[in-house]
Every structure is written in structure tokens, then in C-alpha cells.
Design goal:
Structural class: alpha+beta
Number of helices: 16
EC number: 1.11.1.6
Family: Belongs to the catalase family.
Cofactor: heme
Order of helices and strands: HHEEEEHHHEEEHHEHEHEHHHHHHH
Number of domains: 3
GO cellular component, one term: cytoplasm
Keywords: Heme, Hydrogen peroxide, Iron, Metal-binding, Oxidoreductase, Peroxidase
CATH class of the largest domain: Mainly Beta
Helix content: 25-40%
Length: 497
């Protein structure tokens, strides 16, 4: 490809040499264009199709190539995955993003940040698709589209709507933990290099003895945490809408390679059954006092994409992509993403998205999937497209069968997650109490900026949730929107009397 780009001769997409790329074919000097102007129609038809549909969420992103180096001396006691052999260096591709905004939105918006990693391992791609927060707003994927609709645009006004956001959150108290993070200083990071990343979900590892361990992944920035205040973030929108993109690109360009310490929390399978917190609930963290983090390696970003569309826009991350020695968990949100992500990629960039260079495994791979739009390569040539066959096609290897997991004798049904776990307040309350007084004040002010715009009945619901987390939390938000906490709490008590 590099040699082709240096060629002096311009051609059509089919290789026909182009003699004039400056003038359309017309009837005389001033006459109309004729249909036989193949070059004009090829260029315009391609131009009309240059943009694939933007991602429904995580539409605006930045990315870079890098390397993950495993430093842990004995990961073999947890997993057979070769990526975790000590000293092993694995090529990676990390895409950062905002979540709710469109492609043209500002990098400094108050929003979670996507943290999606593709590891090109010797045993196939491993995609770890997380955020810069260890929790999320909901814990059941059935509510995902409802939640995202509240973060997009009002169907009547086509404007972002604090009313939709706070109405949903006030009726979904499991969101409190993530809401507290979002409206704290961490909701407006100063660029992608200065924030942590998390796998967020609970995953699993399996060792050679077939023992299973549940795990959570953490990526701690070595550049130091830096956040904007609300005022600084708003100002940055007028200075540089692409602040995070620019900061990441130019830092790598000048050789200042960002790094993260990679850590892991590990829970033996048996302990998950009796742990006092549901370890598969995406709205909760595992307290470090119970499951301390262990350092497993370092992630470094050291190469910028050469072509943004080919590498960043067409990058597709699938949580279903794990290497041997890895697995999933009963995390409902993870289970939903295993289906929704590849489905979104097939819609957005086509059924053969895994064959695009940025998504293609770096190790040998063999599949019977054939045909479909934009099929790359030889499409399997004259080999069989079915299995089993007697013509030497790829065959299964039973040593890679997934480890069976037993879930007691549970009955299949729709279980009310709010009935079975109504503790929405302990962890966000603990988080609030960890903040300094000035950080608490900024949190309350950031919340008030949006909550103050909605009707009082929604304010009452939401402030009562904050009050149950910590009385100072509720009082601070009430004061910031010019309300008296006594009136709000009393009103809630009268409703439930």
C-alpha cells in the first residue's frame, strides 16, 4: 500500500488511469454534464458513502496503539492465558471516548469516558471494553436503551434535557453511585491521559487446574489525576472542542508516551456465593479492604493512528472476545453487551467488520464464516464452507471447551433487582464522605446546575435519595438549588406516611 501511495499515476477504484481530475465531461464549454462521466459519478457516489453511521454511544473518540507488558511473577495460579506470562509484551489498541455526545461534541463535556482496549494476543483478540468509572448507572441491560435515550436529545425540542436525565435517575436509585462520580470532579477529566480506566464488569480467569476466579481490572494513570472544574470544562469548550484528542495525539507525537499501571482484584469462585455484596452488580464496587488490588503489568501508548477513519472509526470492540484461560460472569450488563456489541458492529460497519485490519487478529485464524457485504481476501478460496468435512478444513480442539459453571438450582424468571437489593445508598454515601469539603461543595454545585432546571417533584425525589446517602449530601444539593431540606424531607415522609 505504501508503494501505491507514492505512485504518480492516479486511477479509478478499478485501476483505470485517470487523465483529467480537474474537469467534468460536459456538452461544450458551458453545456451540461453527461452521464458517461464515470469519474465524477464514482467520486460523488463514494463521497456520499464516506461516513458510516456514528456509534449510538461513544460516538466521539480518540485512540492510540501501544503495548501491555505483564510484570506479575505468577499469574499461572489464576489463568492459563498467555498474555499474562511474566515479561510477555502484547500489542494493544486503546480507544477513549465520551459516551452521550455526538461526534461533534466537546471533549470536556460532563460525561463518563469510554476506555476500550483491544489486546492482539497470541491466542486471538481480547477486547476489554470499560469506562473511566468502576460502576455504571444501571444493572440490568433491559434498561440500557431507556437510560441512553435520556442522555441524548429530547424528541420534541431536539435539545439535551436535564428533565429527562433527572427524571430517570430519580426513579432509578441504583444510579446514585455513578451519578455521584459523574457530578464530582471526576466527571470532567483534563484529557484522556490524566484519568484511570476500569474494566468495570466482573470477568473471570481459569487456571490449569480448572479453578475459576472472578476478577475486576483497573488501569491507574501514571501521569497523575487531573480534572477540570465545571467552569474550566465549560471554558475549554470555547477554547478547544477537541482538547483530549489534541493532548493525546501531540503527547505521543513528541515521545511523551502515556502509561497506566494495570491492576486486578481477584475473588475465588466460592466466595462469590456468600459475599455480602452481589459481586456481579455493575452499580457497586468490591471494597479494596476485602479484595486488595494486585499489580499485574503496565500499559503504554506509543504510536498514533496513521488514518483516523481506518483505525479509530472502524475499530470494533467485542466483550465476547476473550482468550483461552478467560471467561465471563453472571454480570447482567456484561451478558447483555456480549450480544449487543457485535450486533451494533454488524449494523454500523458490516458483517465482515472483524476482517478490517484494525480488528483482524495478529495470530493465525480459521473460520467457516463466508460471504457477506465487503468480504475481504479470498473468502476461503475453494475450501469447504461447512463442518465437519473430509477435505482438511479446520477442526475443533476439545481442550478449548468452555469451563462449565453451575448456578445452583436457580429458577429462570424475571427477578425484581430492586426487591432483592435495595441498598443504593451505602457506597455512594461512602464515596461522598471520602471527598474533601470543597470537593463535596463542587459536587453539589455541579448537580444543582442541571437539577435546578427541573420541576420540584423530581427535585424532591432525587434530593431524598442524596439525603439517604448522607444527610450533608442532601442538604448541600438542596441549598445549591435554593431549597430547604426540611421541606423536601418532610414532603417525602408525608407521601410515605
Amino acid at each position: 500500500m505504501a508503494e501505491d501511495l507514492k505512485s504518480k499515476q492516479m486511477t479509478t477504484d478499478a485501476g483505470r488511469p485517470v487523465g483529467d481530475n480537474q474537469n467534468s465531461i460536459t456538452v461544450g464549454n458551458r453545456g451540461p454534464i453527461v452521464f458517461e462521466d464515470y469519474l465524477l459519478f464514482e467520486k460523488m457516489a463514494h463521497f456520499n458513502r464516506e461516513r458510516v453511521p456514528e456509534r449510538v454511544v461513544h460516538a466521539k473518540g480518540s485512540a492510540a496503539h501501544g503495548t501491555f507488558t505483564c510484570t506479575h511473577p505468577d499469574m499461572a495460579k489464576y489463568t492459563t492465558a498467555k498474555v499474562f506470562e511474566k515479561g510477555k509484551k502484547t500489542p494493544t489498541f486503546l480507544r477513549f471516548s465520551t459516551v452521550g455526545g455526538e461526534k461533534g461534541s466537546a471533549d470536556s463535556e460532563r460525561d463518563p469516558r469510554g476506555f476500550a482496549l483491544k489486546f492482539y494476543t497470541d491466542e486471538g483478540n481480547w477486547d476489554l471494553v470499560g469506562n473511566n468509572t468502576p460502576v455504571f448507572f444501571i444493572r440490568d441491560p433491559l434498561k440500557f436503551s431507556d437510560f441512553i435515550h435520556t442522555q441524548k436529545r429530547d424528541p420534541e425540542t431536539n435539545l439535551k434535557s436535564p428533565k429527562m436525565m433527572w427524571d430517570f435517575w430519580s426513579l432509578s436509585p441504583e444510579s446514585l453511585h455513578q451519578v455521584t462520580i459523574l457530578f464530582s470532579d471526576r466527571g470532567t477529566p483534563d484529557g484522556y491521559r490524566h484519568m484511570n480506566g476500569y474494566g468495570s464488569h466482573t470477568f473471570s480467569l481459569i487456571n490449569a487446574k480448572n479453578e475459576l476466579f472472578y476478577v475486576k481490572y483497573h488501569f491507574k494513570t501514571k501521569q497523575g489525576i487531573k480534572n477540570f472544574t465545571r467552569e474550566e470544562a465549560d471554558h475549554m469548550k470555547s477554547v478547544d472542542m477537541d482538547h483530549s484528542q489534541s493532548d493525546l495525539f501531540h503527547s505521543i507525537e513528541k515521545g511523551d508516551f502515556p502509561k497506566w499501571t494495570v491492576q486486578m482484584q481477584i475473588m475465588p469462585e466460592a466466595e462469590a456465593e456468600t459475599y455480602h455484596i452481589n459481586p456481579f452488580d455493575l452499580t457497586k464496587v468490591w471494597p479494596h479492604a476485602d479484595y486488595p488490588v494486585i499489580e499485574i503489568g503496565e500499559l503504554e501508548l506509543n504510536r498514533n493512528p496513521v488514518n483516523y477513519f481506518a483505525e479509530v472509526e472502524q475499530a470494533a470492540f467485542d466483550p465476547k472476545n476473550v482468550a483461552p484461560g478467560m471467561g465471563f460472569s453472571p454480570d447482567k450488563m456484561l451478558q447483555g453487551r456480549l450480544i449487543s456489541y457485535p450486533d451494533a458492529h454488524r449494523y454500523r460497519i458490516g458483517v465482515n467488520y472483524n476482517l478490517l485490519p484494525i480488528n483482524e487478529p495478529k495470530c493465525p485464524y480459521n473460520t467457516y464464516n463466508r460471504d457477506g457485504s465487503m468480504r475481504f481476501g479470498e473468502n476461503g478460496g475453494n475450501g469447504p464452507n461447512y463442518e465437519p468435512n473430509s477435505f482438511g478444513g479446520p477442526t475443533q480442539d476439545k481442550k478449548y471447551i468452555e469451563r462449565p459453571v453451575t448456578y445452583n438450582t436457580a429458577t429462570v424468571g424475571r427477578y425484581d433487582h430492586r426487591e432483592h437489593d435495595g441498598d443504593y445508598y451505602t457506597q455512594p454515601g461512602n464515596l461522598f464522605r471520602l471527598m474533601t469539603p470543597d470537593a463535596q461543595e463542587r459536587l453539589c454545585g455541579n448537580i444543582a446546575a442541571g437539577l435546578g432546571q427541573v420541576e420540584t417533584r423530581i427535585q424532591d425525589l432525587q434530593i431524598n435519595h442524596f439525603y439517604k446517602c448522607d444527610s450533608k449530601y442532601g442538604e448541600g444539593v438542596a441549598k445549591a438549588i435554593g431549597r430547604k431540606i426540611e421541606e423536601i424531607v418532610r414532603k417525602e415522609e408525608l407521601v410515605h406516611a
